[in-house]
Amino acid sequence: MAWQFILTSIIWDQNRPMFSSPQVQRTTVTLTFNDGSRSVVSVKLPLSGKLAEVLNSQDQFLDVISGTGEAYFIAKSKVARAEATEIPQAKLNQQRRGADQAQFNPYAVLGIQSTASKEEIRSAYVALVKMYHPDRFLTLDLPQEMKDYAASMQARINLAYEQIS
Predict the structure, then answer these.
(1) Of 30, 26, 22, residue with least CA distance to 71
(2) Among 21, 40, 46, 55, which residue is least crowded by beta carbons within 10 Å?
(3) 8 Å CB contact between 103 and 67
(4) DSSP for residue 98
(5) What does the pLDDT read at residue 68?
(6) Which domains does the chain show, CATH number per domain?
(7) Which is more confident, 142 or 28?
(8) 3-class DSSP state of 131
(9) CA distance 43 to 161
């Protein structure tokens, strides 16, 4: 009987990959170079997810993606300073996915032009706050990821409004 169970589980396991590739983790970082110039990029993290391990490893290059989506390597010897950039992520936002790029654009988050008047900015802010406020979803039976999404969108909306006004 025991060998039958083992044989069945071996056959069942042949239908799925033995090893699944790990999810690549990235974080947004502002790099200051030796010449004083700055760049905001997405840096690939190790399995531990710690930026310090990437910066202090023996590797000579950083694996980065620019705000325009260009992937390249930067020599660590050219970097004078690296600062983690905290931008609340809203992964489910389909309409404003461009705002999730390496550089945070408060106008894109609010869905307005950079030439918008104070009244337009305020009305866009109020409309989005009403739409994404987490209290609006408290009584609904939604998955936790949807509630987290609403909370992260609220944080992005508030941050965008603070930066503009």
Answers:
(1) 26
(2) 21
(3) yes
(4) G
(5) 67
(6) 26-84 (2.30.30), 97-164 (1.10.287.110)
(7) 28
(8) helix
(9) 27
